[in-house]
Design goal:
The complex is a heterodimer of chains A (124) and B (481). The longest helix of chain A has 12 residues. Chain A is mostly helical and 124 residues long. Chain A has three helices and one strand; from the N terminus they run E-H-H-H. In chain B, helix 9 links the parallel strand 11 and strand 12. In chain B, helix 1 packs across helix 3. Chain B has 15 helices and 16 strands. Chain B has 481 residues and is of the alpha/beta class. Chain B has two domains: 78 residues, Outer Surface Protein A, domain 3 (Alpha-Beta Complex); 294 residues, Aldolase class I (TIM Barrel, Alpha-Beta Barrel). A ten-stranded mixed beta sheet of chain B has the order 12-11-10-9-8-7-13-14-15-16. Classes of the chains: A mainly alpha (124), B alpha/beta (481). At the A-B interface, strand 1 and helix 1 of A face strand 3, strand 4, helix 3, helix 11 and helix 15 of B. Strand 1 of chain A pairs antiparallel with strand 4 of chain B.
């Protein structure tokens, strides 16, 4: 911050939080933005209750849809969002060819809940 | 165009600089000239960004004003006028909070009969003479209390002995200390001891014991002879000053490992802060002196009215200036009220409850009933279990829910709520008959005093910021008073 200078300990923490937080949403300032919905800005969908339509009761990348039932508003690019198509689905989905082309595609992803960020992007 | 208005905050000036104290975060920010101009203009009249830019045209560039407004909005020093007031979040602990301090009332008997006493005077909560609470805590109850404390505490436990006059039950106090040390060692916990006494019963063997066991000692005393003897008298009416003065000197001469503090009750008849302070520090040798206006129902002869609180504030400010001068020169000054408030300001404490009572601090009555704090010890209405069966967690949760600052609508827009949170439960009970009410009779006094301490904080922050290191990464256990 340029115009305000923190003086006490709490002010230093507040400044850190404000500087880390997203500029548009000071109310949520506090954590460094990690996952941001693709269509967050400018808003294209009416605000409403967030109903996790289509989500499985388990964490299952590849099977989530956004609150409109589509995939455009998901938290991560669809290219990364097909882990479960590879892992648990019988349907021949378009996933990287782990036998020939990309044998280490999920090498760093021992548990999807924790490691989904580490699934590599694969380009043919 | 959206109008802007000031958020919950308090603007003050110190050492030629402008500062903001923000609620509810309790952050202290130094603000530059642009931000001060922006804040003052909006404080004078809520207005839109465009009006603000034209009002400050020629003095500050629009770009600087926009930047400053954005920063002030982000820390909530400014808010949009059309938005409803943002209610304070009400967050209750989901798991039991460790017990940091237990205040053990080893007796409800006292050899003095101070007219203003909250335990025996006209405003007492508990009928101590009805026989339901024994006069003396038994060794067995004391041991059960220690077990409870060590079971519910974190790695460090504080045990404070209280009364009545604490030293009238020195026998149980002494065996309890031995027992607590042994048990704490077995459980690999640290325990430390303190007590509050009127000093009448101090004698060499007791002083040795307190020094050997590294006791934190607080002495209740009202000042030099004429002031002390006005209220702090024996049952026959004789003043206690002549008895306590030499004993206090002997205590301070022998017990050097921990600072010894005096706790003064101010009444409208004994209001002479500087003279009391000078006497207690210079003549008797106390390291620290804390003052508290007497707790009394309105209309009691010694109680403060509106004017009285203004007098207290003026005298506090006068002595606080000495503290500031000492702090700027990195010297110790024993005015405890400033020291304590500066510590809270420096950390940025923002309280959901006014004190640790019923939370990290609990009182225990002579019968072993667990109370909010020592002032409620023995009161059936404020009981939170007993040392035999443990803390009544359901009652405790209900208490914390009912007393959260978010429930106190009077406090919702007050900038001083981070330090006050409505004030003492016992004071509220005495004034209004319920612990749930905020102490509206001293709002102006709290705001005035907090403003004074903020200005001192600002001056020290500008000229000698290293002074505040003493407040960092230390934990001070709540003290019984």
């Amino acid at each position: 911050m340029k115009h305000l200078k923190p003086v006490n300990q709490k002010a230093r923490r507040l400044t850190k939080a404000v500087e880390a937080g997203p500029a548009e949403a000071p109310a949520d300032a506090g954590a460094k933005a990690d996952v941001i919905a693709l269509q967050q800005r400018p808003p294209q969908q009416p605000a409403g209750p967030h109903i996790p339509l289509g989500c499985a009761t388990i964490f299952s990348p590849g099977w989530e849809v956004d609150r409109t039932g589509g995939t455009a508003g998901l938290c991560q690019p669809v290219e990364r969002d097909l882990f479960d198509c590879h892992f648990g689905c019988y349907w021949p989905a378009q996933v990287p060819d782990q036998l020939n082309h990309a044998p280490t595609w999920t090498g760093k992803c021992a548990a999807a809940q924790k490691d989904w960020r580490k699934i590599d992007l694969i380009f043919p | 165009m959206i109008a802007l208005q000031p958020g919950d905050c308090h603007a003050f000036e110190a050492a030629g600089r402008r500062f903001l104290y923000l609620a509810p975060s309790a952050a202290v920010m130094a603000i530059d000239d642009v931000s001060a101009a922006v804040f003052d203009t909006i404080a004078a009249r809520p207005q839109s960004r465009d009006d603000l830019v034209s009002a400050l045209a020629g003095r500050h560039a629009a770009e600087d004003i926009d930047d400053s407004v954005a920063e002030l909005v982000r820390v909530r020093a400014l808010a949009r006028a059309e938005l409803p007031h943002r209610p304070a979040p009400k967050i209750l602990p989901l798991t039991p909070i460790p017990l940091a301090t237990m205040v053990m009332n080893v007796t409800n008997q006292c050899n003095l009969s101070c007219a203003y006493c909250y335990e025996y005077g006209e405003d007492k909560i508990v009928q101590t003479d009805n026989g339901r609470q024994p006069k003396w805590m038994s060794e067995e109850t004391a041991r059960e209390s220690v077990e409870l404390l060590l079971r519910e505490s974190g790695t460090v436990a504080h045990l404070t002995f209280f009364g009545g006059e604490t030293l009238m039950n020195f026998k149980v106090l002494k065996t309890t200390v031995d027992y607590a040390r042994t048990r704490a060692a077995e459980l690999n916990k640290t325990i430390d001891f303190s007590l509050t006494t009127n000093a009448t019963l101090l004698k060499p063997e007791i002083i040795e014991f307190l020094a050997d066991n590294d006791f934190g000692v607080t002495v209740s005393i009202d000042g030099p002879k004429d002031l002390q003897n006005k209220f702090r008298v024996f049952h026959g009416g004789a003043g206690s000053y002549e008895i306590v003065a030499p004993k206090i000197k002997a205590l301070i001469a022998r017990h050097r490992s921990r600072p010894i503090g005096a706790r003064v009750t101010l009444t409208r008849d004994t209001l002479d802060v500087r003279r009391i302070y000078d006497h207690l520090t210079n003549d008797l040798g106390f390291w620290e002196v804390g003052f508290a206006p007497v707790t009394a129902a309105p209309g009691r002869p010694h109680a403060f009215g509106e004017d009285g609180f203004n007098d207290v504030l003026a005298q506090f400010r006068d002595l606080a200036a000495d503290y500031r001068d000492a702090a700027l020169a990195s010297r110790h000054h024993g005015f405890g009220n400033v020291h304590e408030t500066l510590g809270e300001i420096h950390k940025g404490a923002s309280k959901a409850w006014p004190c640790g009572a019923g939370f990290g601090l609990l009182g225990v009555s002579t019968a072993g009933d667990i109370a909010l704090c020592h002032r409620f010890a023995g009161s059936d209405d404020h009981k939170l279990g007993d040392v035999h069966n443990g803390i009544d967690r359901a009652k405790q949760a209900a208490f914390l829910d009912a007393h959260h600052v978010a429930n106190k609508t009077d406090c919702a827009t007050c900038w001083a709520r981070p330090v006050c949170a409505g004030g003492c439960y016992h004071e509220a009970h005495t004034r209004y008959g319920t612990t749930e009410r905020p102490n509206l009779h001293y709002c102006e006094w709290i705001r005035g005093w907090t403003d004074t301490c903020l200005k001192i904080y600002g001056e020290i922050a500008e000229a000698n910021p290293g002074f505040f290191r003493q407040f960092e990464a230390t934990y001070e256990a709540p003290q019984a008073s």
